[in-house]
Amino acid sequence: MSRDPLLQPYQLKNLTLKNRIMITSHEPAYPEDGMPKDRYRAYHEVRAKAGVALTMTAGSAAVSRNSPPVFNNILAYKDEVVPWVRRLTDACHDHGCAVMIQLTHLGRRTHWNKGDWLPAVAPSHERETAHRAFPKQVEDWDIVRIIQDYADAAERMKEGGMDGIELQAYGHLMDQFWSPVTNSLEGPYGGSLENRMRFSFEVIDAIRKRVGDDFILGIRYTADEDLQGGITPEEGLQISHRLKETGQIDFLNVIRGHIDTDPGLTDVIPVQGMRNAPHLDFAGRVRREVGLPTFHAAKIPDVATARHAITEGLLDMVGMTRAHMADPMIVRKIKEKREGDIRPCVGATYCLDRIYQAGDALCIHNPATGRELTMPHEIAPADVSRKVVVVGAGPAGMEAARVAAERGHEVTVFEAAPDAGGQIRLTARSERRREMISIIEWRMEQCLARGVKFNFNTFAEAEDVLAECPDVAIIATGGMPHTDVLSEGNDLVASSWDIIAGDVKSGRRVLVYDDAGDHAALQAAELIAASGAHVEIMTPDRSFAPDVMAMNLVPYMRALQDKDVRFTVTYRLKAAKRSGNMITAVIGTDYSAFTEEREFDQIVINHGTIPLDELYFDLKPRSKNLGFVKQEALVFGQPQPLDANPKGEFALYRIGDAVSARNTHAAIYDALRLVKDI
C-alpha cells in the first residue's frame, strides 16, 4: 500500500473514501432541462474512473421553485431528477467513487425574471449586488414551505443513490439568515445568533427525519465573511461549534469570504496571480478547534499543496476542483508516479467566468473537459504512423504537435521565434499572468518526451514544408495585431502588443482604444498606468473588456483604480491626427452624430489580429483536401475527408488565429478535434 498521504483511505461515518482527494461541489452548467443527463454524467464518470475518491455534483441544486438558477443548475425540486441522478451515481460507483450533491435555496442570489418569475425571498429586502434582485422579505409560510422543499430534495437525492448531501451556506439563503448584514428579521429568525441559525437547524432536522441517521449530511459554509458587519472569524467558530452540537452534521466544508460582489467572489475563489490556497490555514484552524471532518477547496492547484494540507492535518479531504477540470487523471498519475505529466491548472478561471456569463464551464487549455462524449482526455495511438509538420508553436501548434506525437506520428515543428508560446509568451510577461506559460511548458515537455523535432528561429516557407515530405501539414502561424482601423492616422498608433512586449515605450497621456474586449488592452493599460501616466481606456461597447469577464476583471480593477485611469464606454475612435508633439484623437459614437477632439501623446489600439495565412494559401493547391474542413466532422469529432484533390500530396489544415482571431481555448480545441483522428 502506498505511503503517500493523499492515497490513504478516509472513513467518513459509514462511507470509506479510497483516498483524500475530492472534487468539491460546482456547477459546470451542463444540465439539460435542469437534469444531469449524459453530458453531466460523462464529465463526472471520467474523473471517477481516474481514481478521485469523492465527486460532488451541483453548485448548487435548487430545492425550490422560487430559487431559480441564474445559470444552468440541476432542479432538485423536480421528481424527474431521480432517474438521471441514479444513472450518474451508478456510473461513478462502478469505479469506486463516492458521489454527493450540494443542495440550496439561493435566497436573494438570483433574479425574479428567471424560471417561473416568482419573487426572490431573503431575510431582508436588501439587494445582492451581483444578481440585482430586490427580494421579498421572507414570511413564516415561506419558511415552512422551503424547509419542506429541502427535505423533499434530500429524499430525492437519497433515492437517486447519492452517498450524501451537502447544504450550501455561503451567499445563499441559509447564511443570509446567519449574517447580520443580510438578516433584518425580528422574532424567532432574527436578532441573536441562535435565532439567525434557527432556520438552518429546522432544515437539518427536517432532512434527518426524511433520510435517517445513516445518510451523510454536511455543510459548506462561510466561517468568516471578511465583510464589515458580517460574520467574524469568532462568530464563525461559534457557528461551527453549534453545527457540531446538533449531532446531525457529518462534515464541514469551510469557506472564507463573501460572494455578493465580483471582488468578494474572486477572493473566495482566487484567480491567477493571486496567492495559492489563501484560506487553507483558516480551514485548518476550524478543523483543529471544532473537531469535525473538514473539507476545503480554494485554489489548491497542485499535488504538493494538496499533500501538505493532509500531511499537516489541516484537512481530512482536499478539494482539487479546477485542477480536475484541467486534468481529470490527477489521481491516476499520482499512483503511477507521473506527477510531472499532470496538466496544470493555470488559474485562468475561464471555467467559472463562462458560467457567470450564462455559458458552460470549459477549461482554458483542456478542451475535452465538458466534451467527454466527443473529445478524449487520453489520446489513442493511430493505426499508421505518419509524418506531420506543424508550422507555429503557439498554443494551437503546440497542442497539434502534442496530440500528433501521442498518436505515434513523426512530428516536426517550425517556429519563427526563438521560443515556443506565441501570444501566450507575450501574455506571461505580465507578472500577474505568468502562470499562463505553463500551458506551453507542459506541452513542450510532452512533445520532447515523444521525440518531436523543433526548428526555432525558422520562418518556414512552402519549400521548407515540402522538403519534409509531410503526410499532414498544419498551419498554426497565428496572427498579427490589426491596427489599421481608423479613417486616417493609422501610422500614428501603437498596438497593445507593442506595449506588452516592451517594443514601444509608454507615453505620459495615453488613450487605449479597445475594440476587441480581451485581455491585451487591459494588460497594456496596466503597464502604462504603473509608469505613472494618465490612461484613458475607451471602447465603443456598452461595457469594457467583455471577454475578460467578471472574476478576471477584478485584479485589473485593483491595479488600475488607484491610479490616474479613466474608463470610457460607448465612444468610438474615428481618426488620429498629428498636432505638434501630440496626437489629436477624433472621437465619435455609434449612438449619435456627436464628435469631439482630444489630445494625447500616445494612442494604443487593441483590435484583435489578422491571420498570418500566406503559407497556408501557398500550400493549398498542392494539398489533398485543398484545405477543406468538413464542419460536421469537426463538430462531432470525426475524421476529415481527403478527396478534394486526387493529385494532392498531403492533408492541409490551419488552426487557431491563423484562421481568425479567437482565444486560447478555441486555438487548442481546433488542434485537438482535428489531430485526434489523424
TrEMBL record:
Cofactor(s) the protein requires to work: FMN; [4Fe-4S] cluster
Keyword field: Flavoprotein, FMN, Iron, Iron-sulfur, Metal-binding, Oxidoreductase
Pfam family, one: Pyr_redox_2
Alphabetized SUPFAM superfamilies for the sequence: FAD/NAD(P)-binding domain, FMN-linked oxidoreductases
Keyword Chloroplast (UniProt): no
Family matches, as CDD domains: OYE_like_3_FMN
Keyword Metal-binding: yes
GO molecular function, one term: iron-sulfur cluster binding
A GO biological process held by the record: fatty acid beta-oxidation, unsaturated, even number, reductase/isomerase pathway
Positions of the NADH:flavin oxidoreductase/NADH oxidase N-terminal domain: 6-339
Top-level taxon of the source organism: Eukaryota
Residue span(s) of domain FAD/NAD(P)-binding: 387-616
Family the UniProt entry places it in: In the N-terminal section; belongs to the NADH:flavin oxidoreductase/NADH oxidase family.
PANTHER family named among the record's database cross-references: 2,4-DIENOYL-COA REDUCTASE, 2,4-DIENOYL-COA REDUCTASE [(2E)-ENOYL-COA-PRODUCING]
Name listed for the protein in its UniProt record: N-methylproline demethylase
Species, as recorded: Effrenium voratum
